[in-house]
Amino acid sequence: MPPHGGPGRQQFLTEEEKKNAPKVTSALLKRVFSYLSPYWKQMTVVFIAIVLSSVLNLLPSVLTGKMIDEGLIGRDMKKLIFFIIMSLAVTLGANLIGVLESYMNTWIAQHITFDMRNKMYAHLQKMSQRFFTTNNQGDIITRMTSDISGVQQIITNTLTSILSNSITLTVALIVMFRQNWMLALVGIAVVPLFVIPTRTAGRTRWSITKDSQACSDEINGILNETLSVSGQLLVKLFGMEKREYDKYVDVNKKYIKLNIRESMAGRWFRVALSTFSSVGPMLIYLAGGILMLKYDKDLTVGDITVLVSLLGKMYGPVNQLLNIQADWIRSMALFSRIFDYFDMPVEIENAPDAVSPEKAVGNVVFDHVGFYYDKDRTILEDINFTLSSGKCIAVVGPSGSGKSTLVNLIPRLYDVTSGSVTFDGIDVRKLDLSFLRKNIGIVSQETYLFNGTIRENLLYAKPGATEEELINACKQANIYEFIEKQELGLDTVVGNRGLKLSGGEKQRISIARVLLKDPVLMIFDEATSALDSISEQKIQDAIEPLITSRTSILIAHRLSTILAADEILVIKDGKIAERGSHSKLVNAGGVYTQLYETQFSKAAGSDPVSFEYTEGED
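User: That's the sequence. What structure does it adopt?
Assistant: Structure tokens below.
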């Protein structure tokens, strides 16, 4: 099997990588190799294949000596043909074993990454909403994709390279010393002549490559920003075409210069390597000639040729092993990044004795509930209220007061930090998560639709729903009339994140999806805050019948909705500042009165049916 990599594959650590290099401990190594242990049989086959392939790849060098001494100098045609056939057979055998090793290696790597991806995906699905709101989405996707994919390269390249090159080097040294220990020492002495130019040129190319990559990233940044729909529009509106063109030309010119430098650095490297490659064999020929002519009559031309050939085969393994540090550190860093995610605690999970009642009613009680993301910043404090089945509560308050956080505690998107939330008399932390979330439907301000058809998005709530059930849900959500007008009806494609639909259409499909789920408790979290008045009216027409027939919580945006609620909770600074009916609260002279006078009454004055109560995210 040929050495993995080659002279041009020089890798060096950046200063940041050196600084952040993980501490390689026995525990880390044990954990890394634990992923290999289920495939120990396949790994044994790979090990045997590498040993056989490494040995067989060195045999043609030894057979070359036999061809020269016994075939050519000995003038024996039969032996010459025999050794030639042997050499061809050994080479073919080594290549065939190499194919087997490569297949098994790839098979193991693919199955390990398969296991890791499944484990990571299952782990991430269990993470709380806090994890996804505090961690960068791009970083999460990177761990799932490129980081785990990098594991495959570690197994197929780094680990195999260490093993293969170590075996090849060991066998080559043994054979060289058995042939002639003095010439073997000369051969070892010239190995640095191969390594020095390679590492020197490698560092130079690595430095240029880093600059070239940075330049390429800059070019991609310019293209992404200025050729996107929004970016190109901005360039045109501000008349910046020439400025952006000049900037692109400057970076492109720099990129071309770096590519030329990198290419020429490789050319001079090859000149140096070629020169030093000739020096090594010449020294062995010189030393061998002196020994053969003056001191050692048993030394043959074939022996010297074998040593020269083996010297050439030593170069690759030595060079690779000297440069393996960078690959090794990167490999351990990759595993450390993956393990960091695996080690993140699961905040929201089923209790060992989780309860799953036969039927849900929808009674909700908040008992002295407190919540914070960070201990130094309280979001909710001492929240107490009861929502009985069939009743409706409206939640109002200034932006950032904690309204959305409050409703997110019910389906356990977060867990309370003090007090308790009960659902049908049972603490939600003791309820089976599937049961709890199955019986709660949330329509949020930010509607998310998958890139598929309307039907596929609806069936996400109930995969086995009938056509009649889909139509009824759409009618209740006041969206069926729109769907009927589409050429493909329910099979209309909504586009990525539903971009082919308006905000109101997406929101009504979202309501239909929740209705199809048929939960006992419905939560409308700022469901109409970002919509125009016409879309808002259509959604309101869909919501109003629902709150009279189901247990519901509304973070409200319309006066009619607030009036329809059985109780209004006014949240300020994470506390319930006021509670009661509209008529009671509007005359109390408190927070609700201020909200009504500044927002509600103004909107109600121009439109007695509705008001615009716009808030940011909580």
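The first strand starts at residue 364 and ends at 374.
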